[in-house]
Automatic annotation (TrEMBL), chain A:
One of its GO terms (molecular function) is NADH dehydrogenase (quinone) (non-electrogenic) activity. This is NADH-quinone oxidoreductase subunit I. It comes from the Bacteria. [4Fe-4S] cluster 1 binds at C69, C72, C75, C124. It is found in: Cell membrane. GO terms for cellular component: plasma membrane. Belongs to the complex I 23 kDa subunit family. [4Fe-4S] cluster 2 binds at C79, C114, C117, C120. It comes from Cerasicoccus arenae. Its EC number is 7.1.1.-. It is a peripheral membrane protein. Its cofactor is [4Fe-4S] cluster. NDH-1 is composed of 14 different subunits. Subunits NuoA, H, J, K, L, M, N constitute the membrane sector of the complex.
UniProtKB/TrEMBL annotation, chain B:
It comes from the Bacteria. The lineage of its organism: Bacteria, Pseudomonadati, Verrucomicrobiota, Opitutia, Puniceicoccales. The chain crosses the membrane at residues 12-32, 94-116, 128-153, 174-192, 212-233, 270-291, 311-334, 354-379. InterPro entries: NADH_UbQ_OxRdtase_su1/FPO, NADH_UbQ_OxRdtase_su1_CS. This is NADH-quinone oxidoreductase subunit H. GO terms for molecular function: NADH dehydrogenase activity; oxidoreductase activity, acting on NAD(P)H, quinone or similar compound as acceptor; quinone binding. PROSITE patterns: COMPLEX1_ND1_2. It comes from Cerasicoccus arenae.
């Protein structure tokens, strides 16, 4: 191992006054003072949120505007702090999305309880809940911070869908009914 | 009373009010400057949000002023003024209430003898000063060190141990550095009175006029350094803020204080700093002299361009003096955010073992040099003291 010999010669008179060190320190702080600032003026300027950031959990729609959640309640069961509560609801026969199993009547996420762990997103079989780039949550009361379905869809917006699972299922059922390839 | 006397008194009161307002404004804005300088040194931006409705809406300038934090001292002051002002149950109420005032008043009183510029009447320069008394610097030294009573009384009246420590430290520190400070300026007055013919005295105006050839900070760097160090200690600024030293003594002498009483202590400290910087500028930095003229004939316009410009020159001399003072206020802050605090025993060591002997040595050496210069060059121009 290389040995680095540290110079420990006694201080000379000029060094003993500490002035060289003081002046050096003043120079460092002056340089620091003149450097351009990298401060982000927060409320006006927002940081760039990286992809796959784990912000507030939100509900998303598929490109056709169908709400993807089928209220299977897996996220509700997996949620460690029990922040999610789902009230499942039936879809009436004459609905456009009647071929989908169910839809939540209400979907509540208590943002005061949520720990942003992302397990709801991980567990969701429908890819309906995503932790997206909203990071700043504030409100005047506890009730206000329990986000309901409408608010969650508003935050979530629409995400691309690779599967169109329910539409394909409907197609397959229709083909089978028409005496398809089976 | 004759009407002239009443008019005279009214004028003096008006001038005094102007002085107080200006110094207090500078003290308030020093607080802002401190916050800004601290931020810059730490890589931050500093206060840039406080806006006055109306004034901040002025296009271009308004937002810029807000960004500079111009309105912040107003907000701070209003906050201090309107906060609840509780008096803890265990304090000595009379002294507790008295202490902040005692801390602030000496700082404001010293400005009475502080010349801030010059005006010329019939070719003779006069200082712009509230009271041009002979004992100028003596008055400043005497009164400004009274400020320590505010701190000591505050620390004692608070009746708990950390403020008490702060007060005790403050008094010990003040005594130690007062000595070095007083001695370090003796060479200045020897110089101001020795080689130039004219009335001897401790007037600060005299000191400034004697620096037209060369600023004393250049020709007397060691006394200047000692004075500056002692000034840091006297104004309780880092690296000598023993009375406050928040890491050891919570808040030091003002631990038990809040709201406006704390505000008075705070402004008092900054007023002290502004006055101290002004005194340093006068003693060692040539006051309002523009640049040193090295005693060369025909170059007087370099050191004193003000007397050739009438009243406008007077205004410029004041502004130039303020600019120099502000630089030193900035220097105070710059040092504060650069150096760590000394340990208490180091402060005492430095004061007694180094600064006091060095100041003494300076007195002897400069007395010798000034005496030799007197003998060699200025014998025929008999100094006024001999007359």
């Amino acid at each position: 191992m290389a040995v680095k010999v540290v110079d420990r010669s006694p201080l000379n008179l000029w060094e003993k006054t500490y002035l060289p060190q003081v002046l050096g320190g003043l120079k460092i702080t002056l340089d620091q003072m003149l450097k351009p600032k990298i401060t982000l003026q927060y409320p006006e300027e927002r940081p760039v949120i990286p992809n796959h950031y784990r912000g507030v959990p939100t509900l998303v729609r598929d490109p056709n505007g169908r709400e993807k959640c089928v209220s299977c309640q897996l996220c509700e069961f997996v949620c460690p702090p029990k922040a999610i509560r789902i009230t499942p609801g039936e879809i009436s026969e004459d609905d456009e999305a009647a071929h989908v199993e169910k839809r939540p009547k209400d979907f509540e996420i208590n943002m005061l309880r949520c720990i942003y762990c992302g397990m709801c997103q991980e567990v969701c079989p429908e890819e309906a809940i995503f932790l997206q780039d909203t990071y700043s949550v504030s409100g005047y009361s506890r009730e206000e911070l329990v986000y309901h379905k409408a608010k969650l869809y508003e935050l979530g917006g629409t995400l691309p869908d690779q599967h169109y699972k329910w539409d394909r299922k409907k197609e397959a059922a229709e083909k089978a009914a028409a005496g398809g390839h089976h | 009373m004759p009407p002239e006397l009443i008019a005279d008194i009214l004028w003096k009161v008006l001038f005094a009010v102007i002085f107080v307002v200006v110094i207090m404004t500078f003290a308030a804005y020093s607080v802002l400057a401190e916050r800004k300088v601290a931020s810059w040194i730490q890589g931050r931006v500093g206060p840039n949000r406080t806006a006055l409705p109306g004034l901040s809406a002025i296009p271009v300038i308004g937002p810029h002023l807000v960004k500079m934090g111009i309105w912040q001292p107003l907000a701070d002051g209003v906050k201090f003024l309107f906060k609840e002002d509780p008096i803890p149950g265990h304090v000595n109420k009379l002294y507790y209430c008295l202490a902040p005032a005692i801390a602030l008043i000496p700082a404001l009183t010293t400005m009475v003898v502080l010349p801030v510029g010059q005006y010329t009447v019939d070719g003779i320069a006069h200082p712009i000063v509230l009271a041009n008394i002979d004992i100028g610097i003596l008055f400043i030294l005497a009164v400004s060190s009274l400020g320590v009573y505010g701190i000591v009384i505050g620390g004692w009246a608070a009746n708990s141990k950390y403020p008490y420590f702060g007060g005790i430290r403050s008094s010990a520190q003040m005594i130690s550095y007062e000595l070095a400070m007083g001695m370090s300026i003796l060479p200045v007055f020897m110089w101001a009175n020795g080689t130039e013919p004219g009335l001897g005295g401790l007037s600060l105006f005299n000191v400034v006029t004697s620096q037209q050839a060369m600023w004393l900070g250049v020709w007397m760097p060691v006394p200047a350094f000692i004075f500056l160090t002692a000034l840091f200690a006297e104004t309780n600024r880092l690296p000598f803020d023993m009375p406050e030293s928040e890491t050891e003594l919570v808040g030091g002498f003002h631990t038990e204080y809040g709201s406006f009483k704390f505000g008075l202590f705070f402004v008092g400290e900054y007023a002290h700093m502004v006055i101290g910087s002004a005194v340093f500028t006068i003693l060692f930095l040539g006051g309002w002299n523009f640049l040193p003229d090295f005693g060369i004939d025909g170059l007087e316009w370099l050191s004193d361009p003000w007397s050739r410009m009438g009243w406008f020159g007077s205004v410029l001399s004041v502004l130039y003096f303020i600019a120099k003072t502000m630089f030193f206020v900035f220097f105070f802050m710059w040092v504060r955010w650069t150096l760590p605090r000394f340990r208490y025993d180091q402060v005492m060591n430095l004061g007694w073992k180094y600064l006091v002997p060095a100041a003494l040595a300076c007195i002897f050496i400069y007395a010798l040099i000034i005496g030799l210069i007197d003998i060699a060059f200025a014998v025929e121009e008999t100094p006024a003291i001999v007359q």
